[in-house]
Amino acid sequence: MSSQLESLSNSYLFGSNAPYVEELYEAYLDNPGSVAEEWRNYFDQLQHLPAPDGKEGVRDQAHAPIQQSFAERAKNNAFVRHSAQSDLAFAGKQVYVQSLIAAYRSLGARIADLDPLKRQDRPNIPELDPAFYGLTESDLDQVYSATNTYFTKSETMTLRDMLKALRDTYCRSIGVEFMHISDPAAKRWIQERLESTLGVPAYAPERKRHILKQLTEAEGLERYLHTKYVGQKRFSLEGGESFIAAMDEVVNHAGENGVQEIVVGMAHRGRLNLLVNIMGKMPGDLFAEFEGKYSQVLIDGDVKYHNGFSSDLSTRGGPVHLSLAFNPSHLEIVNPVVEGSVRARQDRRNDEEGDQVMPVLVHGDAAFAGQGVVMETLNLAQTRGYGTGGTFHIVINNQIGFTTSDPRDSRSTLYCTDVVKMIEAPVFHVNGDDPEAVVYVTELALDYRRQFKHDVVVDIVCFRKLGHNEQDTPSLTQPLMYKSIGQHPGTRKFYADKLIAQGVLSDNEPDDMVKDYRQLMEDGQKTVEPVLTDYKNKYATDWSPFLNAKWTDQADTAIPLAELTRIGERITTVPDNFTVHPLVKRLLGERQKMARGEQPLDWGMGEHLAFATLVASGYPIRITGQDSGRGTFTHRHAVLHDQKRERWNDGAYIPLQNVSENQALFSVIDSVLSEEAVLAFEYGYASAEPNTLTIWEAQFGDFVNGAQVVIDQFISSGEAKWGRQCGLTLMLPHGYEGQGPEHSSARIERFLQLCADNNMQVIQPTNAAQIFHVLRRQMIRPFRKPLILFTPKSLLRNKDATSPLTDLAEKHFMPVIGETHDDINPEQVKRVLICSGKVYYDLMNARKERERNDVVILRIEQLYPFAHKAFQAELQKYPNAKEIIWVQDEPQNQGPWFYIQHHLYENMTDGQRLGYAGRSASASPAVGYLAKHVEQQKALIEQAFADKFKGVAQSR
Known about the structure:
It holds the Pfam family 2-oxogl_dehyd_N. The chain is an alpha/beta fold. The protein has 4 domains: 2-174, no CATH class; 205-524, Thiamin diphosphate (ThDP)-binding fold, Pyr/PP domains (Rossmann fold); 561-810, Rossmann fold, CATH 3.40.50; 819-955, Rossmann fold. Helices cover 38% and strands 13% of the residues. The chain has 32 helices and 26 strands. Helix 27 (768-780) links the parallel strand 18 and strand 19. It is elongated, with a radius of gyration of 34 Å. The N and C termini lie far apart (108 Å). The relative contact order is 0.07.
């Protein structure tokens, strides 16, 4: 024993392989009988060796001293004597065996049997060959320690048995990637779950029958639609039927473990199948859509494979509400929308861990690898403001992408799922032709998500029997692949034959299942039972108060002066032991004066009072953006930081969370550096939570460019296509201040081009009272429409843009603000300047300098919907004005000019002429040179006040 002990302590086990010894020692401390005899004897003697501090070792001595003891003995050779060569060789081989185990855990997926078409190359991986480590045939029957594996309850195994167990677990129908995870507990959890079953489930005959039923229904629907609606697009699931078996397990297994709501986001492939065979949509309703019937309620509607649906299902664990999100053809853009919807539902339930509401995202292989919003969404997963307790991802991996792409051209990574390694999510690759393995890894992945509150991926490797759509001929570009597909009998047939061979089914039962399902299709009957029709979810949102409400510009948004002063005092007071930055202290002092009516309110105070009065009235507020706590232009200061403590050590105080005892939640989040995913997340949140004022703020309005798809596909058109009301507010800093082409324009013209059917509000407020009233109006009115606010930069501190406190108590939002100069005689007015935004103050100051009392200036605060009555009432005050001039900072081909013309014409009288004063058309939003900006700004002001206006364009 002495020789063996010495050889172990002297071997390189204590060098680069020391972590292995440490794991053994930890296991020994927990249970001495859990390690092999030679190691147990070694550690027994080690316990009584002198520790580095000279004290006698004890059985539970800490890990660090043991590690130090190893290092000291290796350095000074105090405990080392020459050992028998055989003992040293054995110890070395044990390390090699351990390395082989680690290699299978890391690389086994590379040679797993994942391809139903048997076309994937299975590479030669030297690290998976015992010979790579110098292990020979004679070593296969040698017994080695199996302490760190879960294949057997025994502490030892022969290498031959160990190799078989490794190959069975990691190289058959399941290939797992998890060794990139840094959490040792997570890795051990996966190892134990997989290795204890050798990656093979032990399902009872009834469970196997149920799986076959799911496959039969999945295949049956596709074949029925294929014959009845020839050539119509449906994005068939044929070749990927195991997805339905997986989703059935998602709903049931999640329901067993406490999940009460599931929100699903997915693109086209298999969507109709999910609707009918999992969610219980009536086949007759689907057939009606194929036959051209449509909703009379929706303005425009959408194609059938974009529409959403929801139902309440009875699962093995009780009722589960299942929602399928509406989704455009931009595929993965639905991901953050689903995450936002889930977060809203979790917040409503106070489900901080994500135990009750779960997001499920279904991806295509090419889109998952190819679209950047996937990465942006993954990056939200573990953040405080956007986390949802882990997302369950399923990839329907057709191995071909969307049309004709070769994997060599569709991505630069080995697997389409490699992007998830950025957040250390495990990936379970599984052969779609092994439906039991698909269900097994689905169950395992759901348990992982519940245990570790982390994203997890099931990659179902399958194929696509038809083309990208049913009008495509994929063999034109993939002849050999589609020759293999043509010879494939189908997953259902494979599995049915397997169950017959096992004696689970009789020869005729699979065909009877097919016939029974076909009859359901012929009758148009529901295939999912039971779908609960009388289930009442107490957390469901009641949208009925917001439906069918007529548009109105006005709402009672005023607040009594006494209440404004009281609330103003609360939001400018900090705890006694809180050290405020000197600049913030001065700002709070000024805001206290504003709250008492001693000085006019600036923009930041107007905004703060709007927030404070809303939360005091029971309306929660959620505002996110890249600088939302402080404000990009340091105007907000919603989050105050104790100058003697760091933020991450609770050194923050949020006054708006301390307005009143029973107030609603105020949440302000400095977001990740993303526009597309974060804006889509907030759209999803607002779509699921109408009673919360949900705001997304761009750092600069220009940056909303990065989220254009969210604006086009959801914000502007969601109600027309899907009937989805949404009260999301966008704050987009906009204004020409000489800061160049990337910090000037929020692209007003793009939003205005999308306006129709009262789909949203486009507003550019110009003073503190206006922002106060418009934010309150957004919640008080009985409907929910997106609100696009073009917020200022220089006006944040411009004294001309302040408002008296009485304007908050006595007025309301004004879509059009008329002339405010008292010295102007309406009869003498010859010219009316009409504008929106900051340029108003430039015009006002220029008129004052020029003493032009024959010119009035009107402000259009609400660009859409255009307030015709209010504008006409202002214009009619000046009957002798013949020149109507639109003035804007933006270039002529941008800004509101092309949108606003027809609204101005509609309200002009005979003899009046319309003109434009502003920058010339430009390919860039703004110039980059400050001197040129100043020159242009001066020129447009001169143009607006020229004695003889040269730019007069047309008469009415």
